[in-house]
């Protein structure tokens, strides 16, 4: 959610984004530590565990064509899509910077250039939407699995709440992408 918020700051223009957002992040003392141990390793663990569930889990869509049984598969397939998107995103941002250090000075301009390509913009929109749906559905499933929502009514209400959160995050993320196109 923090990443969506920081990218939503793109609506204030390149100077604000490059100085207030990217500049602040680049000045963090332990940025490489945070990126590796707080972001990358947990995502890799989650992805590995998700792939394990994908290969060992069972869902019978033909026998039980319920909405939430479909969400079981949506969760698995969106996870694969997100993993591919993250590889592309990290490649186009963090890794590209290794070959072109000047991007650090104008990340807004780099994102503007990337997102003006319709294929890359489509990739980002799809990756964003998959990510927020995956988050909302994952939180809903976690609430059921951990016994937070045990009654059908509480599960229904929490489903609406988490899908509402997904819609709000999608709006914030799309707004951020739009900001880079200004």
Overall average pLDDT: 92
**In the CATH hierarchy, what is the class?**
Mainly Alpha
Q: How would you sum up the global shape?
A: elongated
Instruction: Kindly state the number of beta strands.
Output: 0
Amount of helix: over 70%
**Count of spatially separate domains:** 1
Rounded to the nearest angstrom, the radius of gyration is: 18 Å
Q: Which class best fits the helix and strand makeup? A: mainly alpha
CATH topology: 3 helical TM bundles of succinate and fumarate reductases
Cα separation of the termini: 22 Å
Walkthrough of the structure:
The longest helix is centred in the middle third of the chain and has 33 residues, at 67-99. Helix 6 (118-145) runs antiparallel to helix 7 (152-181). The protein has 7 helices and no strands. Helix content is 80%, strand content 0%. It has a single domain (2-181), classed as 3 helical TM bundles of succinate and fumarate reductases, CATH 1.20.1300. The model has no long low-confidence stretch (mean pLDDT 92). It is mainly α and 182 residues long. The two termini are 22 Å apart.
Brief synopsis:
With 182 residues, this protein is an all-alpha fold. It has helices spanning 2-8, 14-26, 31-56, 67-99, 107-115, 118-145, 152-181.
């Amino acid at each position: 959610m923090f990443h969506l918020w920081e990218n939503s700051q793109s609506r204030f223009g390149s100077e604000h984004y490059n100085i207030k957002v990217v500049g602040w992040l680049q000045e963090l003392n332990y940025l490489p530590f945070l990126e590796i141990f707080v972001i990358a390793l947990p995502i890799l663990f989650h992805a590995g565990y998700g792939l394990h569930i994908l290969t060992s889990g069972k869902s019978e869509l033909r026998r039980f064509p319920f909405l939430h049984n479909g969400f079981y598969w949506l969760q698995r397939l969106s996870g694969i899509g997100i993993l591919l998107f993250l590889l592309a995103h990290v490649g186009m941002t963090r890794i590209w910077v290794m070959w072109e250090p000047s991007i650090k000075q104008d990340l807004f301009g780099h994102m503007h250039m990337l997102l003006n390509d319709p294929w890359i913009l489509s990739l980002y929109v799809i990756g964003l939407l998959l990510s927020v749906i995956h988050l909302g559905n994952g939180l809903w499933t976690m609430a059921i699995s951990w016994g937070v929502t045990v009654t059908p009514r509480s599960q229904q209400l929490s489903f609406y709440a988490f899908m509402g959160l997904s819609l709000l995050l999608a709006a914030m993320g799309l707004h951020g992408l739009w900001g880079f196109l200004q």
